[in-house]
Amino acid sequence: MLKMTRMSTKTRLLIMANKSKPSVLGALEALRPWLAQRATVVAEPDIADMDGVRPADLPPADLVVVLGGDGTILAQVRHTMSLNVPIVGVNFGKLGFLAEFSLEEFQSDWDEIVTGQCPTSRRTLIEARVFTEGALDCRLNHLDSEHEKARSVALNDAVITAGAPFRMIDMELAIDPSRSQPYVTRLSGDGVIVSTPSGSTAYNLSAGGPIVSPDLDSLCITPICPHSLAFRPIVVDAGCGIGIRVLAANAGTTLVVDGQLSLPLQDQEQVFIHRLPQTLTLIQNPRLNYWQMLAKKMRWAARPRSD
After folding, report:
1. What is the distance between the alpha carbons of residues 35 and 33, in angstroms, rounded to a whole number?
2. Of 83, 50, 37, 36, which is closest to residue 64 (Cα–Cα)?
3. pTM for the whole structure
4. Which residues are designated catalytic?
């Protein structure tokens, strides 16, 4: 758990609001005059049209305020990560694992948020890079930019899913390929999840993967319905690169990043997943630590009911 650096008296805010939610629109109307008395709003971009916006196009800010849910934060991390400023999430979604504050809590905790008295959490970010069939072997640490098809940043996870017509797919998995060299693990099943600690409570958890404390520098590798009794989820050091070659794909086999971005995969294409040097700083709700939040919102470790 970290303490945030004290901000200037007139905090510069970048507001990223999910205006497709009616509740966000109403709250934003009431919040603007309240914020105007306490901070300088430097920008309020339309997050529905951010694909062409580069980080350099955004003005300098001290704090990013996201109004929406966890999915809104996941989307905006890709646009704001290079600004290297903390994010505070105001939850208008369901669980609120990343967006930890209610609107009332955000307002009541405002002074603590901007003066660095709220705890913060540094979150691991990963990048998934996709290479076409003709690329050099990622297992030998060859990231062949000539054959690079796409790349994307993720806060939660990068998932290879079998897709229609829903036959098993075959993959080769190499962990820390710069050291393991030609050694690979063969995997047949419905896909594989590579998640950060932040994403360990998302798809990874649903697929039987472990819950990992968000402050650990690690990655989870969790197979999806593997055709093996022996292939179990594992946790590796985040510094390990993870190379995956799709040997036999379906027509609908896809790489899905943070549940939002999708890219079709074909036979012999490779996905290389690695930790980024920069991290994301999330401002935390001081009322709940991570394990209390997990128990409250997902009933972790709840005792059986007697009634």
Report:
1. 5
2. 83
3. 0.91
4. 70
